[in-house]
Every structure is written in C-alpha cells, then in structure tokens.
C-alpha cells in the first residue's frame, strides 16, 4: 500500500511534535483573547496556528525548505483574508484590528512550528502575549492623557462662500494664499448653493495644524474680493 511504503516514523514524529507545539502555543495566545471576549478566541487562534503549521510542515517534507518558503507566502496572504473578516467599521470607529493582528501572529507561530523553528515559535508567542497584556496599561494612560487639537491628526477643510462670478478666479488666489501660509491644498471642489453663490471646499494636506495660524490665514482669505465668508472644519482622520 502507498501509505505503508511512504510512512516514515521519523517524519511522523517530527510532524506530531510540530503540531503539538503549534497547539500549545496557539492555546496560550487564544486563551488571552478568549478571556478578553474578543471575536477570534481560543479555538480560532489554535486552528489558525495548526493550519499554518501543517501546511508548512507538509511542504517541508515534500519539497524541502524552498517549497516551505512558497507555502509560507500563501499562508501570509491567506491569513490576511481571514483577518479582514473580523474587522468591522462602526460609524467612525473601526473594531477588530487587534484581533486580526493576533490571528496573523498565530499563523506566524504555527509556521515557525511547522518549519521546526520551535524556539522561535515560543519566543514569538511570548512577545504576542506581552503585546496584548503588558501594553494595556500604557494604552490606557495614553488614552487618558489630555490632548490639544494641534497634537492630534485630523483632516482639515476650508469652506469659502463667494459670488458666482468671482468663484472661478478665486480658486487660484485661495490656493496661493493658503500655500503662502504653509497650508498646502490637496483639492478644491466648487459647490453651487441655492442662493446663487458658490462654495469652494478646499481640503488641506496638513493633518496637524496650529489653529491660531489657520484662523489668521482665513482672516486674510475673508479680505479677498468676492468672498462672503470663510470657515474651517476638522474631521477625524481614517
């Protein structure tokens, strides 16, 4: 029988050890995720580590290290699709990024185990657990730290309302004035208003600005011929 002829006790024992290591280390990572009640918990992380381990181990036994390298590349891309499934957008907030990153690391642990890099797999597991546990107090401290608008990144826009006949020539002057004030413009979009005026919406390239300097620049914009009003807006960056 092909199975009996191809069966090698040494290879079988190597696979058993690799899978056992992947199972144990995946359990450590998954237990922490399960305790935190994350979307991908104990079983998911274990299965990811086992699957990555077996694919790499099989390639090692069939084609050697070169084949394993190719399989690892597919494992990395495949886990990317799996991780995307746990990322959800809730309004302006995005949830699941940490869970997806942990799944990626579980796959790396399994791949190390499948490639017989047991020590590296254990080391990576220790760093993953440290990242998900010991860094939590630091994250909490950073979240509680007082912030100013200048210290956080955001998307800034400038809205200028002008007479319809002045809007076309005003776009260039608006861009030049903002550029001179160190507020480069990414794009300017004109929008027709019901009152017959035109609103010029300029998106700034800057993600962190001095609000006093921006107010001063808009004061100069209001002095341009044909400008009825000029205001700025701030929205959270993606």
UniProtKB/TrEMBL annotation:
Q: Is the keyword Membrane assigned to this protein?
A: yes
Where in or outside the cell is it found? Answer: Cell inner membrane; Cell membrane
Please give the Gene3D superfamilies that the UniProt record associates with this protein. Answer: 3.30.70.260
Q: Does the keyword Membrane apply?
A: yes
GO CC aspect terms: plasma membrane
Show where the MgtC/SapB/SrpB/YhiD N-terminal domain sits: 19-138
Task: Print the keywords alphabetically.
Answer: Cell inner membrane, Cell membrane, Membrane, Transmembrane, Transmembrane helix
Task: Indicate the principal place this protein occupies in or around the cell.
Answer: membrane
Membrane association type: Multi-pass membrane protein
| Parts of the chain that traverse the membrane | 12-30, 42-62, 68-88
PANTHER family linked to this entry: PROTEIN MGTC (PTHR33778:SF3)
Family statement drawn from the similarity comment of this UniProt entry: Belongs to the MgtC/SapB family.
Which protein, by its recorded name, is this? Protein MgtC
Native species of this protein?
Ancylobacter mangrovi
């Amino acid at each position: 029988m092909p199975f009996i002829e191809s069966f090698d006790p040494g290879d079988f024992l190597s696979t058993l050890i690799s899978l056992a290591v992947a199972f144990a280390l995946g359990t450590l990572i998954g237990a922490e995720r399960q305790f935190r009640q994350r979307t991908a918990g104990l079983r998911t992380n274990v299965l990811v580590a086992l699957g990555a381990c077996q694919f790499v181990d099989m390639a090692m036994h069939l084609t050697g290290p070169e084949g394993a390298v190719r399989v690892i590349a597919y494992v990395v891309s495949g886990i990317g699709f799996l991780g995307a499934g746990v990322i959800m957008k809730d309004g302006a907030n995005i949830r699941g990024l940490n869970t997806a990153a942990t799944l990626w690391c579980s796959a790396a642990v399994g791949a190390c185990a499948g490639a017989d890099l047991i020590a590296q797999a254990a080391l990576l597991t220790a760093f993953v657990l440290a990242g998900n546990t010991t860094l939590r107090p630091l994250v909490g401290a950073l979240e509680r730290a007082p912030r100013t608008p200048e210290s956080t990144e955001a998307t800034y826009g400038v809205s200028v309302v002008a007479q319809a006949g002045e809007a076309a020539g005003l776009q260039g002057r608006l861009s030049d004035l903002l550029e001179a004030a160190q507020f480069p413009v990414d794009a300017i979009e004109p929008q027709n208003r019901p009152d017959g005026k035109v609103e010029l919406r300029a998106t700034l390239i800057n993600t962190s600005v001095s609000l006093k300097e921006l107010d001063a620049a808009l004061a100069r914009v209001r002095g341009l011929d044909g400008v009825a009003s000029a205001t700025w807006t701030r929205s959270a960056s993606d």
